[in-house]
Amino acid sequence: MDLCHPEPAELSSGETEELQRIKWHRKQLLEDIQKLKDEIADVFAQIDCFESAEESRMAQKEKELCTGRKKFNMDPAKGIQYFIEHKLLTPDIQDIARFLYKGEGLNKTAIGTYLGERDPVNLQVLQAFVDCHEFANLNLVQALRVVKAKARV
């Protein structure tokens, strides 16, 4: 006699009913496990899709940044306009000044050209750009060296 799988004739009617309930519960649990596996697979597929979309957005943003830098280096005013139109930069004076201060990929001469324009917006950006520099506790010569060093970067 196999104790793990007894013959149905060896079971009482109560035991047979209990065995049927156990088999039914086992079947339900296996179905629930399969549903969970399917849901997990769907979640992973959605994550993969989201990551692909995010990578695509990041690549597009990097491409737009590169295009904007090229435009800025050729014509600073058009470059700033491009950055604003593509929502890579806000029209806020402080934001533009910080962007120029960082100068990532921007030609220093083009930055100077933009800041040297006599348009009221450009003058405000120039003031904000100067405010980005740290001149506290520096004499005039040291402050000029800071500006000169920034222009070389």
UniProtKB/TrEMBL annotation:
Transmembrane segments: none annotated. It holds the Pfam family Sec7. Residues 54-145 form the SEC7 domain. Residues 19-53 form a coiled coil. The lineage of its organism: Eukaryota, Metazoa, Chordata, Craniata, Vertebrata. Keywords: Coiled coil. It comes from Piliocolobus tephrosceles (Ugandan red Colobus). The gene is CYTH4. GO terms for molecular function: guanyl-nucleotide exchange factor activity. This is Cytohesin 4. One of its GO terms (biological process) is regulation of ARF protein signal transduction.
